[in-house]
């Protein structure tokens, strides 16, 4: 029998003799070859992964694994589709912020704390993606619910806890996520739909209020990037040179 090439080229891709496979696979291959079977499963003796095999073409193909280095661009949903997702989940984003999310001037970067890294705001598509938190699936905008469900298993809700943390776990569960910075989650206080808080996803039930407000995010002006600043500076220099030349 001819050699077979492992289809998982990114971390194996080695050639091997069919006799190197496990006995069951080898016997199965011999029988399938006689019957000219074009679809079967075998296992690479090098990386141990399962692959598809065609005995007529004598070709192996991937099955259940894909090159992790290839980034597949996600197809964006329309605003109408995203609104349908939110409506089905009974999620209401404060209207002014929802309108801001679908505008062309939406700026995903926001400074929450002085002299610290900017937070990243999720766009509407990202907010409607499903995320997994401790084995529980939720829309990203409701990811706090996933954390709360886990916290309820280890934390007892008491009046003393609420006084110390300013939120009950149920109140926290109903708050909407809008952004992040590393493991810090930026969310809207659903009690006034304007105050912004930080939930530390790596610190149990630790969170803190910020001085940033939702309405401030909406009305802020976008900062020009370096390319824009350089362009403005160049134009200014050119104007000054022109004036000097005329004089």
Notes on the structure:
- By secondary structure, the chain is of the alpha+beta class.
- The protein has 2 domains: 4-61, no CATH class; 99-219, no CATH class.
- The chain is 33% helix and 21% strand.
- The strands form 4 sheets. The chain has a 6-stranded antiparallel sheet. The chain has a 3-stranded antiparallel sheet with strand order 3-4-5, covered by helices on one side.
- β3 and β4 form a beta hairpin.
- The longest helix has 21 residues, at 226-246.
- The chain is elongated.
- Residues 224-239 have low confidence and may be disordered.
Distance between the amino and carboxyl termini: 88 Å
The number of helices is 9
How many domains, as an integer?
2
Provide the residue-averaged pLDDT. Answer: 84
Provide a concise account of the structure shown.
This protein folds into two domains: 58 residues, no CATH class; 121 residues, no CATH class. The protein is an alpha+beta fold and 247 residues long.
Features:
247 residues, alpha+beta, six-stranded antiparallel beta sheet, three-stranded antiparallel beta sheet, 9 helices, elongated
Which helices and strands occur, and which strands form pairs?
Layout: E1 4-5, E2 15-16, H1 23-34, E3 40-43, E4 50-54, E5 59-61, H2 79-88, H3 95-101, E6 109-110, E7 119-121, H4 124-127, E8 130-133, E9 136-139, H5 143-151, H6 159-165, H7 169-173, E10 176-181, E11 184-188, E12 195-200, E13 207-213, H8 214-219, H9 226-246
Antiparallel strand pairs: 1-2, 3-4, 4-5, 6-7, 7-10, 8-9, 10-11, 11-12, 12-13
